[in-house]
UniProtKB/TrEMBL annotation:
The keyword NAD applies. GO terms for molecular function: oxidoreductase activity, acting on the aldehyde or oxo group of donors, NAD or NADP as acceptor. The keyword NAD applies. This is Aldehyde dehydrogenase 8 member A1. Pfam families: Aldedh (PF00171). The lineage of its organism: Eukaryota, Fungi, Fungi incertae sedis, Chytridiomycota, Chytridiomycota incertae sedis. Residues 30-466 form the Aldehyde dehydrogenase domain.
Amino acid sequence: MVLAKLENYINGTFQAPSSQNYIESYNPAIGKAFLGWSTTKRSLRSEIMLKIAHLIEEKLEDFAVAESRDQGKPIKLAREVDIPRAVYNFKFFATYILHLESKATEIDGIATNYVQRTPVGVAALISPWNLPLYLLTWKIAPAIAYGCTCVCKPSEFTSHTAYLLCKVMSQAGLPAGVVNMVFGNGVNAGEALVNHPNVDVVSFTGGTLTGSRIASNCAPKFKKVSLELGGKNANIIFADCNFEEAVNTTVRSSFSNQGEICLCGSRIFVEESIYEKFIESFIEKTKKLKVGDPSDASTNLGAIVSKEHLEKIQFYVDLAKQEGGKIVHGGERITVSCKSFINGKETDETTNGWYFSPTIITGLSPSHRVCQEEIFGPVVTVVPFKTEEEVLEYANGTEYGLSSSVWSENGRKAKRIAEKLQVGTVWINCWMIRDLNMPFGGVKASGLGREGSAYSLEFFSEEKTICMAN
């Protein structure tokens, strides 16, 4: 498979990139397309979205290969997680909109009040590089389900599945201009989208610094904003846990997708009485992970997304050593011989690529920079704790608040800890189980707003109270 040269998708046609595309892409979204799509029956919207889901399923292998080559993730992960979840995003919202309810109240026989929901308008949707199609469709699906039109800006590092999605949407019969796609960097394309006066809402997933800038730009214009930002997630392991299950899941929650998932547990806190036992088992199981060619189905960790990000990861590992940390596993680049791709075309050359070993660091305090700042790679710190109060102080002691995991067979204790954690999601004795009916988002520097079923409905629509005299 040769990855295609990217062209912007505007008003149902592919167009060569130009500086004007960023502005021209709004015309179909704010004009005829919005008027038509916002009044389209929900049953027809649902039908088109289910066609999109079906076509992605038909072309799953094409999407998976493109995602793996673009992002560096193992092909197995793309096949089994990323692309199926994109399919499910469309299926979920396509069926959800068929069962919407409205509330009405009567005022003592005088009048009846009811609530009408209308699409909010044009949505700017900006998605990250780590789960490209997965998170882009998590925004597109609810936006178009609820009658909005949108202009999307996928990450400039991982745009190919977005391009393939445009072809699928066109094939499924999505009217021209309902979804428009512009490719480019955040400074040009992203800022143009956010600042355009005819964009009504902005949904962004990415770094906290960029999210802060977006919020600042939107505030004077009173635009609705949803921000899913960075994380430094705590994984809390008590002595009364199911030990094997806790260790096995911790390996997965630490290093899945090279640790490049916002929900990965990069800070591991282990109760003191099982700390040494945990370290020994954690290292043993981590050693079994294979870092290798993403196209190899046996690979556990693929390539880091870019040279710059690889250098960032190396910086923090070196910083950990300077701060007094001990690298008990990994901590270095790995040489992997595999096929290279230049402009999407496979060559006969091999490349060492951007690979990094799964890294476990001990000997640091929770206040050290490596334990405080988001690394977003296959690097975790392990810190012992003595009491519930101490681990809560450790876990809540960062600027972030996206998610946490708690491991204990004592249900009361696990619930007690979960309710005191300053995060948007807590998993008890599990990780990464997602119900799309539930709210998703972070607190503190991890974001603003919530996504998922009714929560996405609130974001992509406006409520109007209508009072009618009896």
